User: Fold (2Fe-2S) ferredoxin domain-containing protein from Streptomyces doebereineriae.
Amino acid sequence: MPSTPRTSLIGSASCTVVVCRGCCCGDTRKHPGTDHAWQLELLRAGAAEHGFQVRTTDCLGPCDQANVIVVRPSAAGRRAGGRAAWIGFVMDDEGTEEVVQWAAAGGPGVAEPPLTLELQFIEPPREARVRSRRRR
Assistant:
């Protein structure tokens, strides 16, 4: 039986937002003024409306810069030279909304991040940089 070519893989056309929910990010004891559940709701609502993906993960590493969010490029974004953007200190609705708007616009390699969000970009931990070099 001949196979039909797939024109698009699930998730390949959109960027992915990875939200740290490890030891420090998302912890109400360490950051009592932040509604961490609401932050995830905002991100998931934006994803449902605009078609990008949201995932949560355990500790990403830079705990002193919590809450950390990584915006990973889509396949098109990677082809255009986009790389994962690590964003630190995303603790309020405004920062979260900027992540949503950037992901909705296409994310790394497709759209420029808002300047105020770009000011929150952080270096990924060494382990993440080593892993990304191996994948190229």
About this structure: Confidence is low (pLDDT under 50) at residues 1-11, 129-136.
